[in-house]
Design brief:
By secondary structure, the protein is α/β, with parallel strands linked by helices. It folds into two domains: about 140 residues, 3-Layer(aba) Sandwich (Rossmann fold); about 200 residues, Dihydrodipicolinate Reductase, domain 2 (2-Layer Sandwich). Helices cover about 35% and strands about 25% of the residues. The protein contains ten helices and 15 strands. It has a nine-stranded mixed sheet with strand order 14-13-12-11-7-10-9-8-15. A six-stranded parallel sheet has the order 3-2-1-4-5-6, sandwiched between helices. α1 packs across α9 and α8 crosses α10. The N and C termini lie far apart (about 50 Å).
Length: about 350
């Protein structure tokens, strides 16, 4: 076996495994998907048949994967409730870990994951694939170059007019820890803090709502939800003050009476210029006494009669992660950054429950 071969074990063979992790890992040279565990063994068997290495195994428990010394990396793709426990155990067993977002259902568990990574010396990352979209990679470079100046106001947006996930555990508070905020809001918040490179929080105020979730036979692309089983918030909003005085507003909803929809979106307002990724990448500002708005082209276009070359951000995410493991580099999504995302989400929920601000 080549020395740079990376053997991956998959814990959780559900939708996100088949939609992103398995197909893209299987396309990377030198990566072997060698272990599978799922509570329903049929799903693990299907994953092994489609993506498993020649010697791939199906394990009877997730702990068995961790005890296998031939496994180098573990991907934790389970309901949110189990992220922290499984990730911490995997790190302690000497495995590198990619955990699906959100990092954990609460800040205390996320902190434990960061501490476990430091003690183990193994790599930990959280799957925020939207960082790898071309417009977001370019915007990050522009911010780092100083084009926007000090970003003192930003909005993290993840709004659906109707888009409630009615399958699996999404509406189960015990399994998921929350609703729209922890699900799609986490992506927008991660992007915004990453662009700003600002992780020092001063205070958080938040509100949550369950208004439309009470509707019977509601219009929804994945079918109407059962109001009696809708245990999490449909909408959550947050107002965050950073230590340097900057303000971040979070808007997240699975069901909101608005036509202003969009996910993994950010609006940045800086001292030199502003930017957003609402429709591709747009930069706005003032120059020589005039206001300007520039649409920045970020896709790589091919020649005539050929399709544009567009790489899925999920594929770039997997390639970057495996490269970090092989070359002993920091992953693009650092666990300390994902921890702050979880701390803010936790604080929004806490503030909504108590009606009081949360001070950091």
């Amino acid at each position: 076996m080549p020395s740079n071969t990376v053997r991956v074990g998959i814990i959780g063979c559900g939708g996100i495994a088949f939609a992103k992790h398995l197909p893209y890992l299987s396309q990377i040279d030198g990566v072997e998907i060698a272990g599978f565990y799922n509570p329903t063994e049929e799903k693990a068997r299907k994953a092994k048949e489609q993506y498993g290495s020649k010697d791939a195994k199906i394990y009877h428990s997730w702990q068995d994967i961790l005890e296998d010394p031939s496994i180098d990396v573990v991907h934790v793709l389970t309901p949110n409730k189990f992220h922290a426990e499984m990730t911490i155990a995997a790190l302690k067993s000497g495995k590198h870990v990619m955990c699906e977002k959100p990092m954990a259902t609460n800040a205390q568990d996320a902190q434990g994951m960061v501490e476990a990574a430091k003690k183990s010396g193994k790599k930990l990352t959280v799957a925020f694939q939207n960082r790898f979209k071309p417009e977001n990679m370019m915007l990050k470079q522009l911010v780092e170059r100083g084009d926007l100046g000090w970003i003192y106001f930003a909005k993290a947006r993840a709004l659906r007019r109707r888009g409630v996930p009615t399958w699996g555990n999404f509406l189960n508070k015990d399994m998921q820890g929350g609703g729209a905020l922890i699900d799609i809001g986490s992506h927008a918040l991660d992007l915004t803090l990453w662009f700003m490179n600002n992780y020092q929080v001063k205070s958080v105020v938040g509100t949550t709502y369950n208004v439309l979730s009470k509707e019977e036979n509601a219009a929804n692309p994945w079918g109407p939800w059962d109001p009696s089983k809708f245990q999490v918030e449909e909408s959550a909003f947050g107002f965050i003050t950073m230590a340097d005085g900057a303000t971040v507003v979070v808007e997240s909803s699975w069901a909101l009476n608005t036509v202003d929809e969009g996910e993994a979106q950010t609006v940045l307002c800086g001292s030199k210029a502003g930017a957003d990724n609402i429709c591709g990448l747009r930069i706005n500002g003032e120059d020589m006494g005039s206001l300007y708005l520039n649409d920045v082209e970020t896709q790589l276009h091919g020649a005539a009669y050929y399709e544009p070359h567009v790489v899925d951000p999920g594929k770039l995410e997997m390639e970057s992660w495996i490269e970090a493991v092989r070359e002993d580099k920091e992953p693009l999504v650092k666990p300390e950054q994902a921890l702050v995302v979880t701390q803010i989400i936790d604080a929004i929920y806490q503030s909504a429950a108590t009606g009081k601000p949360v001070l950091f």
